[in-house]
């Protein structure tokens, strides 16, 4: 899905436009070389589907032109599931932001620029991120919140939680994951 920094930048730009148009908030994300993860809140029932369609209609032709290829880029339809438990929501956010570390792309999450980790752990501006109320409740001040998020992520994810994610997300490669 992404072969160069420019690909990530174009994808972010296209995604940002679609988020604004179709009223979808992204609270956490990871753009991996062969898939993406989003933790979102939709304003309308069709917001996620409309954003995914808009991204595909614009990003796939860009990618195909750039790399002189044809055909689809995504393997199958995106998958989504509802997160309705506060503790699990925070665990999902951590799971997403630590994905590049688990994949062996970096040693620490702050070393990978294509996730929302630096926005949550250091306050770096991010055009895709809308802070979720659960994240904001971590602490009263931004500095305390950043330290709290860093500490939470440093704990890692217990194997029982990883197994739960893997069952939900499946093992297929190259699919867009929401």
Task: Write structural notes for this entry.
By secondary structure, the chain is mainly alpha-helical. It has a domain at 86-169. It contains 8 helices and 2 strands; from the N terminus they run H-E-E-H-H-H-H-H-H-H. A two-stranded antiparallel sheet has the order 1-2. Helix 1 packs antiparallel against helix 2. It is globular, with a radius of gyration of 16 Å. The two termini are 15 Å apart.
Topology:
Layout: H1 5-22, E1 24-31, E2 36-42, H2 47-66, H3 86-97, H4 99-102, H5 117-122, H6 133-136, H7 142-154, H8 159-169
Antiparallel strand pairs: 1-2
Low-pLDDT segments: 171-178
DSSP helical segment count: 8
Give the termini distance in whole angstroms: 15 Å
Order of helices and strands: HEEHHHHHHH
The dominant shape is globular
Report the radius of gyration as a whole number of Å: 16 Å
Major sheet: arrangement of strands: 1-2
Structural class: mainly alpha
Average per-residue pLDDT, rounded, comes to: 89
Strand content: 5-15%
Largest sheet: 2 strands, antiparallel
What is the tally of beta strands?
A: 2
**Helix content estimate:** 40-55%
Oligomer: single chain
Q: What is the compact description of this entry?
A:
The chain is 49% helix and 8% strand.
Characteristics:
178 residues, mainly alpha, two-stranded antiparallel sheet, disordered C terminus
